[in-house]
Amino acid sequence: MSAAREEILRRIRRSTRDVPDAERPEDVPVERGYRETDDAPRGEIVERFAERTAEYKAKVSRVSESGLPGAIRDALKARGVEKLVVPPGLPEAWVPYGVEVLRDGSGAGAQLTNDELDRSDGVLTGCALGISQTGTIVLDAGEAQGRRALTLLPDYHLCVVREEQVVGLVPEAFAGLRETVVGEGRAITFISGPSATSDIELNRVEGVHGPRTLEVLIVG
Fold this sequence. Notes:
It holds the Pfam family LUD_dom. The chain is of the alpha/beta class. Helices cover about 25% and strands about 20% of the residues. The protein contains 5 helices and 12 strands. The longest helix has 14 residues. The model has no long low-confidence stretch (mean pLDDT about 90).
């Protein structure tokens, strides 16, 4: 056993030495006095989501339902996307003409390879939820989203978020995802802006764990 691991375990044992052997985590009630719903006006919640998502260096646009196909087309054209990854459940009306569509599948052998995803120019998806409090987009591998790899390997992610999918607070999001996680066991991905990290000298590097560029279309 390494010295570092032994030191970590020693500190854990020291911190929990007064806990009875028979006690289980569920035996100790935890005070959960945080807010579970946001009583702000609906328009304010959506506007806050747009502002905070943009603060993460994501490009955010508000579009109408009828204007969504055109907004998708314009965003892809401005980005120079020629090879576009799409999940199997993406609405056909969202897919513009003039791009090579790389459609992922769900059957054996039908999924795009990691190399195909990496060589694409971007991916277009929907989402499960948007969180106004943190400017976070939530994916749950559901309709119009596909498997997790689709949004991790392409360098550009264009995501469609409907106003009715935006919740105010993080606890609201977790409550809404309970059945997806507990009932269906699907993977959940939280996206707060483009992928980025910093080294020990705080030099920001983008695109390490996902796309360097995130663009969001809020439909309402």
